[in-house]
Amino acid sequence: MKILIAVDSYKGSCSTFEVANSIERGIRKVCKDSEIIKIPIADGGEGTVDSLVKGAGGRYETVHVKDPLGREIECRYGILKDNAAIIEMAASSGLTLLRKEERNPMVTTTYGTGQMIKAALDKGCRKIFIGIGGSATNDGGAGMAQALGVSFKDSEGKEIGNGGGELARIRDIDISGIDPRLKDTEIIVLSDVTNPLCGPNGASSIYGSQKGATPEMIRLLDNNLKNYALLIKEKLGLDIMDVPGAGAAGGLGTGLIAFCNATVMPGIDVALDINGIDRHLADTDLVLTGEGRIDSQTACGKVPVGVARRVLKYGVPVIAIVGSVGDGASIVYEHGIDAIIDIVSKPMSLEDSMKNVKILLEQAAENAMRMLIIGSALQGRFRNRNNNDNKMRNP
Q1: What class, spelled out in words, does domain 2-41+276-384 have in CATH?
Q2: Residue 322: its H or E element
Q3: Which residues of 88-102 are buried (b: 16+ CB within 10 A; e: fewer)?
Q4: How far is residue 166's CA from residue 140's CA, in Å, rounded to a whole number?
Q5: Contact (CB, 8 A) for 61 and 281
Q6: 1: burial class by Cβ within 10 Å (0-12, 13-18, 19+)?
Q7: What is the DSSP string of 230-257?
Q8: C-alpha distance from residue 350 to each of 23, 64, 345, 357 (Å)
Q9: 246 near 161, Cβ under 8 Å?
Q10: pTM (2 d.p.)
Q11: What are the two backbone dihedrals, phi and then psi, of residue 147, each rounded to the nearest 5 degrees?
Q12: In this predicted model, what pLDDT tens digit does every residue of 332-357 receive, in sequence order?
């Protein structure tokens, strides 16, 4: 039997590689001689660089940049074999870089993400993939643009400061100093987010609270992004307000589209292409996928459904092994997933399940394989019974 494992990480407890290795151990307890292919997958969030560098072959580069609050940090990005760069904005501008009490999208900046793009340009990369999940920011990508040479001036001709709170002050946008190498660079944004920039489904309203915004801040941030979008339309001739994905990562999608001519694509599809999953599927018997929590949002481009959709044309069964099952999870059955297995097999706290996630994954994979063997045996019994019935009817 050939089994392909293509899983996302379990956020906060297990990397995509650790999840895949644990599942493999469970499989081996039942099917020792199976051929197992492991393909690390991410959809543009944390872990994207690791999954693509290790999955497709590449190298890491280290760079010093500013974190969301302007402090210098060291982070890394990847360069693939074809000299395409892969960047995670979360590495420089992510929520996990801040303590809870530091979260404030009025002041956090994407400047470090712009520095990472510049570092990739310095390495000669003219194709850059940018995963934009996990942001701590709501500045519309203005900080990123500033790092690449764009100037945002207030009514007195002074450069604005950092954060979403400063966008209200912008009265002029000057792109004359933007890095000229961007004109010859293809930038692809990896995102499963289709939110517009503003409004009830926009960046501030949907994601602002998890970044530390109060209800009053959310109102201000949304108004500030509207001012930003109107100025982009006035100065650059780009109407970006309702573009799907413009609201991703606190509006970083807007900045990348407006100033870097970026294209927004589903992160999972790009990752599957780069990792070459299709070359394995023609002769694969079973696909195991999964994520930390499966629910109705999984159908909106997250890893398990992204994998299942790709597998569908090959007619291979897909099982999702997950950390928990949330509301509306059954919708994934309409998108190519054939079964869901929850790793939590008895009552336990979230803390205990996260602490024991590798063991639980191994047990869940073992149980999945045992059920498949039972199913195969039952199918054989039914087939034999039908054959015997036919013989009795037609002696």
Answers
A1: alpha beta
A2: strand 318-322
A3: bbbbbbbbebbeeee
A4: 11
A5: no
A6: middle
A7: HHHHHHH----TT-TTTTHHHHHHHHHH
A8: 20, 35, 13, 10
A9: no
A10: 0.85
A11: -65, -25
A12: 999 999 999 999 978 888 888 888 89
Domain limits, the chain:
2-41+276-384, 48-267
d(CA 311, CA 302): 14
The CA distance from 113 to 9, in Å, is: 23
Place of tokens 């280290």: 62
Q: What is the pLDDT of residues 273-330, one digit of tens each?
A: 888 899 999 899 999 999 998 998 888 778 899 999 999 999 999 999 999 999 999 9
- Dihedral angle at the C-alpha atoms of 13, 17, 20, 24, nearest 10 degrees? -110
Ramachandran sector of residue 12 (left: φ over 0; alpha: ψ -120 to 50; beta: rest)? left
Residue 14 per-residue DSSP state: B
Superfamily of domain 48-267: Glycerate kinase, domain 2 (3.90.1510.10)
How many CB atoms are located within 10 Å of the residue 281 CB? 18
